[in-house]
Amino acid sequence: MREVELWQRLNEVLPGGYAAAWADQVVMEALGSRTVREALAAGIPCKRIWRAVWAQLELPETLR
């Protein structure tokens, strides 16, 4: 997964500009106590980040 696809998915599940704020503010243990943006900066693969987001938001299996 590329970063562009990660952001597309985030914007689909968190519309209205909420994705960017959420990515800056929500700290996830699955990402080593990092936010999405911090995880990206740390070089964590986008696929791993998306899995953490998917679990955190309790999204349906179809979006995994």
Automatic annotation (TrEMBL):
Top-rank taxon, per record: Bacteria
Xref: Pfam families: DUF3046 (PF11248)
InterPro entries in UniProt: DUF3046
Protein name: DUF3046 domain-containing protein
Species per Swiss-Prot/TrEMBL record: Tessaracoccus aquimaris
